[in-house]
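Input sequence (127 aa), recorded before submission:
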Amino acid sequence: MDPSGNAIIVIQRDEPSELEYGGAKHLKGLARVLDNARILREFKDDPRAAFRALNSGLRRHGQDASAVEQARALAILIELSIELEEPERVPDWGAKLRQIALTADERRQAESAVVDPTVLEPWMPDE
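Predicted structure, token format:
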């Protein structure tokens, strides 16, 4: 997106014949919230709505979610907070992220949930 608000949408030529509209019905809890936030952010270009959905969803479903789902949600919230110029919650989410015990594979999954994994470096738990 440029400063004037113009966006470029790129379409792959080898795009699958079945379009993904998201909202997977089989997902439950925080996994479903993560899927919804991805749709809001990537397809509807609404990072604010994705932020709200994740913030609310993490409060509601965080305790029952797996460690990697919690880490992915926190990682995305950290990145969205920076993107939306609301960094005041980043230290709290970062501290929660640091407390989650992650395997190397789970850590990669959490890092792959964000566009710029370097924003997570201060907060990622040690391997």
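Checked by second reader. The first helix runs from residue 29 to 43.
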